[in-house]
Amino acid sequence: MSDILKSLIDIVGEKGVSNAPEELWFYSRDPGVLAPHRPDFVVAPKTTEQVQKIVQLANREKIPVVPMGNGMSLAGLVIPLKGGIVMDMKRMNKILEVNPMARYAVVEGGTSQGALKAYLEEHHPRLRHSIPDSPSVTTIAANVSLHGQGRLTNQYGFNSDMVSGLEVVLPTGEICLIGSPSIGPYWISKGPTMPDLSGLFLGWLGCTGVITKVGLKLYPNKKIREAELFVTDRVDLIPEILYKLTDLELLEDINVWFQPKPFMFLGNYQITIFYTGSTEAEIDFKRKMIWDCLQEYMDSKDGGFMGTYYMKEALLQMPGRNVAAFADVPRGGGFEYSGPIAPIEHFPQYAAKVVELAAKYDVLYASTARLISGGHSMMYSISFAFNRNDPAMMDRVEKALDEATVFALEMGGIPWKPNFKEQKMLLEKMEPNARNLLLMIKKNLDPQGIMNPGNWEVNS
Ligand SMILES: Cc1cc2nc3c(=O)[nH]c(=O)nc-3n(C[C@H](O)[C@H](O)[C@H](O)COP(=O)(O)OP(=O)(O)OC[C@H]3O[C@@H](n4cnc5c(N)ncnc54)[C@H](O)[C@@H]3O)c2cc1C
To answer: Which of 28, 256, 320, 375 would disulfide-bridge 133, Cβ 3.0–4.6 Å?
Structure first.
């Protein structure tokens, strides 16, 4: 082990490596419910070449490597299940290029959402990227490697759909450009018109390589953003309301949320509708379209728009900080969510399941669902809060989340950012030839099985 430490120091310098117990304690856990596991080393590279050398060393010595952004997936995806090296990417945080006409940015593999947002606000105020509601310190590469979603997901799909090129270090150490940057200087396409190799890395949770650069599509940053809040107590109406809203083809983001606390929310389903415009006239027009489209529910007294005067600032925050408000984080609380991707018509069944599971396991719930690609699917967040000082409660939340995943799979849903247990359930349910294809890819890309082992462990 001391030889490995020495080799890592040779690669990144003394300040970039640690095996001190207090550091290993920190890097052994994430804020979710899964049990921690200690790594042997933490290393923080600064360049792609350093990443390459670390991976080559790990491959030669058969040591696990877990790429880490900010460790906030809540699904334990950077817990080093088999020890080895946690590779903290945060020192690779440069914004390398913004092409304002072609609307893309190229960032290093540890760049945070907040850094890109701030950079664009200062240097390219007419451009924006799809910001998730995760804390600003979370990283762009990690988010696309788990198929994250953000403010523009209703319009343009998963954040990983917005990737416009990648640089990756393969588990065997080769540095590889994916998409248009493999042909010329422009980061305009991750795949088309060639076979799309980005699928070998996106959604793989760091199990097939380390992303060292991400090309990300940018979108117009309109001068005005607005939010409407529609409320109904008729859960059965939610799918058709969402269908009508997406039929308008003009909304930035649509979230449906419900929670039992504070009391005024109990039994109601809130739909937050985000839209943007360059002028007040455009905003007025869009607002009218939204109100007209939901007029029939106001006429039938099944729903109505809620005044948002005091809430507007909180609603329009990016990232939305109220997502975690139901978990008492400052006093040691936390939350974790299972987030199956499923058709919008299943909303009532998922909503009933959240409430049923919360009652069965005696835990507090909150649920925020997000529409994807104009309603082709939806992410149902089934969130439960916990108090870390109460092991029995942690156990109940873990069981409730496991049961939520079983339910989602029975309903034909796909667990999103699945933890290692959910990955196993997914692989067991998967059609065998599809599973074999995954196995072929994993074996060929990572013959020693060093990349984030314990995750996407495919067996024939
Ligand atoms: C309050 C809250 C709200 C949230 N809201 C959202 C939301 O709206 N949308 C959303 O998508 N998520 C959300 N999340 C979940 C999560 O925080 C985000 O998905 C976030 O992008 C994870 O980033 P990270 O840097 O913390 O990832 P990490 O946990 O560090 O990593 C996640 C995965 O990516 C892999 N990885 C990391 N870096 C690399 C790399 N360079 N190359 C290859 N693989 C890599 C890791 O090995 C791991 O498998 C939320 C979380 C919280 C706590």
So the answer is: 320
